[in-house]
Write a structure and sequence with these properties.
The chain is mainly alpha-helical. The chain has one domain. It has 2 helices and no strands.
């Protein structure tokens, strides 16, 4: 087993830039997950209204489906890093 090579010390400017990059990356992932959930809710509510359903069947189904899809995408993106 190889020992991990230590990173050279970063300057304060480099540390700040890497912190900003990490924050932007994870903020984007959160926005993607939130957007998928909201898309499921709004599309599902629209379908429920069009079909005149008493219960929000499409809204629940599409929200869960879109959230699972977003979680799979999130998992794949995190594996790449």
């Amino acid at each position: 087993m190889q020992k991990p090579t230590p990173k050279p010390d970063q300057s304060p400017e480099e540390k700040r830039k890497s912190a900003i990059k990490a924050t932007a990356k994870y903020s984007g992932l959160v926005a993607q997950l939130l957007g998928a959930c909201l898309a499921g809710v709004f599309i599902g509510r629209w379908l429920d209204a069009k079909m005149q359903l008493e219960r929000p069947l499409w809204a629940v189904f599409l929200t869960v489906l879109f959230m699972i899809g977003a979680m799979v995408s999130l998992y794949r993106q995190l594996l790449r890093d």
